[in-house]
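Page header: ASSEMBLY MODEL / two components / 869 residues total.
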Amino acid sequence: MVKVAFWQNSDCWGCHQSLIDLHLSLLPVLPALEIVYWPAVVDFKYDSLVAREPGEIVVGFIEGSVRTKQDKEGVKVMREKCQIIIAFGSCACYGNVHGLANQWDISECIDRKYNTVESKVSGGGEPTEHVPGFEPKIVNVDEIIKVDAYIAGCPPKSEQIFSAIGFLLGQKPFPMNDLAFCNECSLNQSGCLLDEGKLCFGPITSVGCTMKCPDAGNPCVGCMGPAKTVSARASKLNDMTKNLGSVSSGDKKTTYEFLSLFLNVPLMAGFDLAADILKQVKKRGAPETPLANLPSDTEAIASNVLAYLRDNRDFTDISTVCDTCDRVIGSKSTMTKVKRDYEGLPNMEDCLIEQGYICLGPVTKAGCGGLCIRVNAPCTGCYGQTEWGVNQANRFADTVLKGFNVSISKEELLAQVKDPIGTFEKFTLASRKGG
Amino acid sequence: MVKEIEVEPVTRLEGHGGLRLVLGDDGKVQDVQFNIQSTRFFEKFVEGRYMEHVPRITPRICGICPIPHHIAPTKAVEDAWGVQIPEPARKLRQLLINAKQYSSHAIHFFALAAPDFLLGPFADPALRNVVHVINKMPDVGAMALKMMDFGQKMCAAVGGKAIHPIVCIPGGMKKALDEDVRDKFLKEIENQVEWSKKTVEIGVKVVEDYWDVVANVGNVPTYYVGMTNNGVHDIYEGDIRIVSPDGEKFDYAPQNYLEALGEHIPKHSYATHMYYKPAGYPEGIYRANCLAMTNCADKMATPLADEALQAMRAKIGNTPHFTFAYHWARLIELVESIEMMAKLLEDPDIVNPDCKTLDVQPREGEGVGVVEAPRGLLLYNLWSDAEGICKKANLLVATNHNIAGIEKTLMHVAKQVFEDKALEGLKLPDPWIK
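Prediction written out in full:
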């Protein structure tokens, strides 16, 4: 059992919802954790956290922005009690949207909420009884205490959190159920996708999912994680994964999804710690297989896929959201003016920037997998900047003028953005240093 | 001697709250405070933003219910700009908000509330949580997790992200559901409906087991605030409805909210106290959330849920004030949400890419958007300038609508516990989990 604690500053609790969204995948993890503080879920009170010995807790997750004096005190208590502190989510990493309040003096914020609000009838002024008081500005957690690791994202993807916890517990990914997916697959008797020469990771993936992709003719991509045993088709899958370089584009897509869902690899890009498999690949050329106590076929298949990852620059160069976006850069479209998000409707193929919209993909850290862009909404930068201490509006303009179909000048582009702070630093204003 | 009791923090709660009770020499309850200890000033820092960016910022008000906080401001922008949306967009938004209702109600019942009932109120605090429930009742645990998972996956499929969705835009939706994705969900619906019915059975059994508690602890007459669409339960669109303690109903168009909803700014809580303005404060204190919604509704929108509502009314009346009946009402709403999803998934409009009005123009003016979030009424009032920049915002969120009612209920229960010693003679069942 590993002692863990979750501290929640001022925020939305979405990082915890993202953790809970692991749902069934949580089942094998929970017995390994001794949760000693987590107000959203368990009943331990603040006194009990304060009463712990220094360093008694192994891992402390800190979520949220430091808005109140209570937040600041709690962050310091966590540092004292925990061996490893993780800034969990973009609030703890960068201040998130709450940092936008730094544009005003705190008294103006208080005045709007408690004095001038239209629905007010009685009372008013800043509440002061048995409430903690506000910090004058949103200040990042790592300016208050030392932070050992960062998991960015608003929220961080569930799988990314899973990877982090798994790493910290030294055993990832966790095997799920005994049987492999093939046992529950409607194509098990006839029409197996592997028999048709298509990649399908059903032979090593756990049963228990509700979606059953092969029923609709799509391969299993491993989202349930490994099974404790493999099906008879595992050796066939093993052979096929030895030659991933020459597979069809459909099979490549399956492989990418397997990497992210089964091995959590591209998602680890958002986890700034030595466990980041991408970093290992870049440094040493060969990642450690992150599996433990699994069937040998599963190990072999995972190694084959990881070897493909090592040899494929598309993966090792992932650093921005653009690197995980399927849209075409250098498309048939060109930005001739800056469009607002409500204007028209972009097509699903061309780069959103080239279609005229401000999309922060090229200046935002990878890790999300480009979720917003997949539903036709531009990236707004929730995973954080790829470079700090510079003027972010200038950096965006310089970046897109260099590598994208943009026919307006930098000055025109910047002049057409009426809210530069809300557009370029929505999640990171509290992290602005100079620039 | 005056005695103070503090609960710090209140746990299994979304947000930061502390509870303070002051008992006098004579054992009488002198004061009860529910101290909400954090706020982040969204109503201030959305000023100066593009109106269409407000719905991409405000979901961060609540990670458990980000979808209502995405839809309501989008509707407010559309109201301010006079924008109509295509019918497929309306249906996609209904699907999205019902998916959230489903997962949120499942998480509330199983993870936040059930541990109290399944382990009993006097269980070891270290064990009184969902982790222990899952370990001890793996079948129920697995069912609960599959229900939450389905709701969250649907939120992600329609909304782009389950937590902090991005698909709504003034004028409609950025993207419809893909057909193959729709088909996957359709296949799973039947199981989900069955599990929802099973959850209602568990809930009703819990109510029966704890009947002495349900009927006698926290039976507090208040007003209620909710939303109905011509009297029918609706979480996506309709009028604000107020129900008086004796069941009288008053309807207000969202744009007239200031006639109905008053705000008292207390000294001891960062979340303010909302109440029914014509009745005054504190007399007009209301409660929001699911029991308020079922008290407001003439009927539910779907057959199984309406059947469940009638069963509840047969047992506890049309305007019940039992605080513990919230759990029952929540499960009635849970059933409605899965029935709504089933109906919407069958509708061809759900995969219709014609889900966005292309010609959207900003204009100066104010707009109001209202939806029902899983924890209660959610209202956005936004002011736009001619270029579509947000000049001002008033956000009345579910927390505001609940805090005064919660505090009133706490006072009532504190008197029951400390003055009337009402807990001592209560009949409690054997815990399901020992």
